[in-house]
């Protein structure tokens, strides 16, 4: 042990020496043959802890004291303080009153600390990821907060947050911080040069000591009014500040305002075999006190690990989850846990600090980059270690963890954590398999979600930012966890819940759904971390009455004060899949229709007594002629009011006796859409490559026809009928007020879309010369070519590297918006006359498309199961068995042709195959007759074929010769 400085009170431990001042390092013979573990320097005294010394009964991981206060950092992460509190240096929110017994600093709860330090009347705490908190006296700016106001609560030094601080030391009125990147910052009182800035000025902000730049400083220590820094790679120790008692070790009692070398036989641990090194000192740790300094060293023949405060000492840190401790816990014999392991598990899983300090990322960006945008957590490591810890071989470990989480951790989580580092457990804990265990939903997963939802706006926003950086599979696991909780709760409710527990159930369900709602918003804002359909809970149709839920939701909107407080799933529409949404839309249609009918009946009743009141029909009646179906329909719809579109639709073909039980209505939609989309009208442009259509901006037809098509599409949805409408998804995006993108152009015009993508992806510098484009578009209409400007003076603007995205955006906007604006507006207005409302807004564009034209989610087995039979046919009739054997062996294209032949469309309703309700009936005649499709009723007349070959031949012949709509 080497020591120097003031020895007037024996604080150097040199015995009865004559000098009161030792101006250069001197060996302390008392420690010869003894192993020193730690040193604590006071104003006029020094304490040493030897290797054979006793340890405190409570697990203290870090201890710091000054002449007026003491700080303790416990293994569980709590920080305690006591002593003088004149300036608020205990961090308890009060000042003036001294505290004789240890008090926990509540405002630091949950933060994973690496170190604490006490100064004259100020204190500091450093987190594992380099955040620095200071409190107490700030007369000289020693808290580094850009002012000189004292603090009775810990305050974050925002200026050091990004500096990767790994060690901090406090003097009487100044502070020094060492960073992972070798920098030394000092601030506070500088009257004696103790800040090392070559001046006697005070600093109220952290300032780097430039004369130490270029040195790999591994240790710093602050005395009362001096500072020491050690650079082992250069065999160098520097000191600066007050030197009147020789505490600088420069063989002088002069003050130093900038770093000066401490004279001593310092050696580098990189060259321990040199001759000089054998006689030299390998410094293990440096210490500074009031006016004295110490260097704990070893010689080459007894070389020990040299302390580097940039590296966390595993024996002086809070307890965190890592491979070593998990291996220790899991390597015990199965059965009852040893008390030591049980205590450790309880310590970690009862402490927010311990969990927040676990699974820290060591790769880029590492945990020192922690911010409101970066969590500093390695989620893959968290999942791996949690799954290694919670195993079937050790159920006792899982039980101990569950008990600690349930009783000690979750109930104590704060709704306003003191720092973002106290939020990490909200990311990592759900990776624990215990959360996914249905037995722990009520005791762990739901209370955890409730704590999360109780967070104030600022921390909740930080969590949202962190979630948005998740890999899709990690984010998906969290979503699946709480989807599972919702399903579990609904299953329990369906089985029956006592009325006394109904309120608790409602709270649990609402908590889980609200968390899913937040995750859904995060995913949407981040550009869909996972696809929207990953939030769908497909079991809802079996677990709740969706129609009744919707009616209840509507009633609560109309009468918000008069409900029982139960949860309606319609408040959380993102969990509804396409089929559930369709059920909602149909329910809404039925309600609207019933309201329209009731209104009509009320008006008709009034007309009986009041002649001035005109009677109305409770249905929307379309009387049309087949040969003039478009004109007749337009005439009726022009005279109809918006309320009429909400009525049930009845169609009558002039001169035909058929009663519209649904089949006539279906035939009407098939015929009128075929007519309206006929090229003779020139209303739509057909794209050969994609086989899709889009509005033609050069049409000569009445613009009202587009309004009619919009109404027809709306009526089709309202009346549960799919129609042939080969538009791209862009149409449905626009109906839902969403912007089409380049991907939509690729769907409509694949060649053009690929060319524009190639333009965006081009990396060479000669883009302008290679593509030779300007902000124009060339169109061909009726044999004539026309060049149109995409922006004002577009012909004079060449497309280059800087504006190519603008060009692509303008091109897409022209095709889907600008060029067809008046036509689409009429279509949009017509569609929303029928289908406008909140329910429509629940749909995604491709779901709305499936509502209008059906989808291709074929399930041929379901089609067979849902088919009904008439007459002597039944499921096991020989002809029926032959039919299904032939059908299931057909290739996909032939099966789709069969659907077209039978139903008028090769697509299926959004509700699936079961909603097609195919009907097969026998027909007279012999085997030489072909099957006949009654398209309007999904009815197939199937002769009684006796052989597989004949049935296959006749069926293929029927569907191959089907042209357009085969209406019988």
UniProtKB/TrEMBL annotation:
The active site is at residue 936. Residues 641-968 form the HECT domain. GO terms for cellular component: cytoplasm. It is found in: Cytoplasm. This is HECT and RLD domain containing E3 ubiquitin protein ligase 4. The gene is herc4. RCC repeats lie at residues 1-52, 77-129, 130-181, 182-233. PROSITE patterns: HECT (PS50237), RCC1_2 (PS00626), RCC1_3 (PS50012). It comes from Sander lucioperca (Pike-perch).
């Amino acid at each position: 042990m080497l020591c120097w400085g003031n020895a007037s009170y024996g604080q150097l431990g040199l015995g009865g020496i004559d000098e009161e001042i030792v101006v250069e390092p001197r060996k302390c013979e008392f420690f010869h043959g003894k192993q020193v573990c730690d040193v604590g320097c006071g104003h006029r005294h020094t304490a040493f802890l030897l290797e054979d010394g006793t340890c405190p009964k409570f697990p203290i991981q870090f201890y710091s004291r000054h002449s007026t206060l003491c700080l303790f950092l416990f293994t569980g992460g709590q920080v305690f303080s006591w002593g003088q509190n004149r300036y608020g240096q205990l961090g308890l929110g009060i000042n003036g009153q001294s505290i004789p017994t240890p008090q926990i600093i509540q405002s630091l709860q949950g933060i994973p600390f690496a170190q604490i330090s006490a100064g004259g009347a100020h204190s500091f705490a450093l987190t594992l990821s380099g955040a620095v908190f200071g409190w107490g006296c700030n007369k000289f700016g020693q808290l580094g907060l850009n002012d000189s106001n004292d603090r009775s609560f810990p305050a974050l030094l925002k200026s050091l947050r990004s500096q990767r601080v790994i060690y901090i030391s406090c003097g009487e009125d100044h502070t020094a911080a060492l960073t992972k990147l070798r920098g030394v910052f000092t601030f506070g009182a500088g009257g004696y040069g103790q800040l090392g800035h070559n001046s006697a000025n005070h600093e109220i902000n952290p300032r780097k000591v430039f004369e130490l730049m270029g040195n790999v400083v591994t240790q710093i220590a602050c005395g009362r009014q001096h500072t020491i820094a050690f650079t082992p790679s250069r065999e160098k120790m520097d000191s600066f500040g007050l030197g009147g008692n020789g505490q600088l070790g420069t063989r002088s009692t002069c003050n130093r305002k900038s770093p000066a070398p401490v004279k001593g036989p310092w050696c580098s641990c990189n060259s321990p075999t040199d001759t000089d090194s054998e006689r030299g000192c390998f410094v293990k740790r440096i210490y500074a006190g009031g006016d004295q300094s110490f260097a704990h060293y070893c010689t080459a023949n007894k070389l020990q690990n040299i302390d580097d405060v940039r590296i966390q000492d595993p024996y002086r840190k809070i307890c965190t989850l890592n491979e070593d401790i998990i291996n220790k816990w899991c390597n015990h014999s199965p059965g009852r846990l040893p008390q030591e392991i049980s205590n450790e598990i309880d310590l970690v899983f009862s402490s927010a600090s311990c969990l927040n300090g676990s699974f820290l990322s060591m790769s880029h960006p590492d945990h020192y980059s922690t911010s409101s945008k970066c969590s500093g957590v390695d989620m893959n490591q968290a999942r791996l270690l949690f799954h290694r810890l919670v195993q079937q071989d050790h159920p006792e470990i899982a039980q101990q963890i569950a008990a600690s989480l349930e009783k000690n951790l979750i109930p104590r989580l704060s709704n306003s954590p003191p720092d973002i580092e106290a939020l990490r457990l909200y990311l990592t804990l759900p990776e624990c398999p215990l959360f996914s265990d249905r037995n722990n939903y009520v005791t762990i997963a739901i209370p955890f979600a409730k704590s999360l939802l109780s967070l104030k706006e600022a921390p909740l926003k930080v969590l949202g930012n962190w979630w948005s950086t998740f890999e899709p599979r990690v984010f998906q696991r969290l979503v699946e966890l709480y989807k599972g909780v919702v399903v579990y709760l609904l299953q329990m409710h369906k089985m029956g819940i006592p009325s006394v527990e109904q309120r608790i159930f409602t709270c649990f369900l609402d908590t889980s759904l609200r968390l899913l709602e937040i995750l859904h918003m995060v995913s949407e804002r981040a550009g869909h971390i996972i696809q929207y359909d990953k939030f769908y809970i497909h079991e809802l149709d079996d677990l709740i009455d969706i129609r009744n839920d919707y009616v209840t939701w509507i009633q609560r909107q109309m009468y918000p004060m008069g409900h029982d407080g139960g949860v309606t799933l319609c408040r959380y529409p993102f969990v509804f899949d396409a089929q559930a949404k369709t059920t909602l839309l149909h329910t809404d249609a039925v309600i609207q229709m019933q309201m329209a009918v009731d209104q009509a009946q009320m008006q008709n009743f009034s007309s009986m007594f009041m002649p001035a009141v005109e009677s109305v029909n409770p249905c929307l009646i379309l009387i049309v002629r087949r040969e003039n179906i478009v004109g007749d329909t337009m005439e009726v719809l022009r005279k109809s009011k918006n309320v009429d579109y909400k009525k049930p639709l009845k169609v009558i073909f002039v001169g035909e006796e058929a009663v519209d039980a649904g089949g006539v209505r279906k035939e009407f939609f098939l015929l009128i859409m075929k007519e309206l989309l006929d090229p003779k009208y020139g209303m739509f442009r057909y794209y050969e490559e994609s086989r899709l259509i889009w509005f033609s901006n050069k049409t000569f037809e009445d613009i009202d026809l587009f309004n009619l098509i919009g109404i027809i599409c709306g009526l089709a949805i309202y009346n549960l009928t799919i129609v042939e409408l080969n538009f791209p998804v862009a149409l449905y995006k626009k109906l839902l007020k969403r912007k089409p993108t380049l991907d939509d152009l690729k769907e409509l015009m694949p060649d053009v879309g690929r060319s524009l993508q190639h333009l965006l992806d081009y990396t060479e510098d000669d883009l302008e010369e290679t593509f030779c484009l300007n902000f124009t578009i060339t169109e061909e209409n009726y044999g004539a070519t026309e060049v149109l400007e995409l922006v004002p003076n577009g012909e004079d603007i060449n497309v280059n590297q800087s504006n190519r995205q603008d060009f692509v955006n303008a091109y897409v906007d022209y095709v889907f918006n600008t060029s067809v604006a008046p036509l689409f507006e009429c279509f949009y207005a017509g569609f929303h006359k029928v289908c406008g409302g909140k329910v429509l807004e629940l749909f995604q564009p491709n779901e709305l498309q499936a509502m209008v034209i059906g989808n291709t989610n074929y399930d041929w087995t379901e089609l067979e199961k849902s088919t009904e039979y008439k007459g002597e046919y039944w499921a096991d009739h020989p002809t029926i068995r032959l039919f299904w054997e032939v059908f299931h062996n057909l290739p996909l294209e032939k099966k789709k042709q069969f659907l077209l032949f039978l139903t008028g469309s090769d697509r299926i309703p959004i509700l699936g195959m079961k909603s097609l309700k195919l009907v097969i009936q026998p027909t007279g005649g012999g085997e030489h007759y072909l099957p006949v499709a009654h398209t309007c009723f999904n009815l197939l007349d199937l002769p009684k074929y006796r052989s597989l070959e004949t049935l296959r031949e006749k069926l293929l012949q029927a569907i191959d010769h089907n042209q357009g709509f085969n209406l019988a």
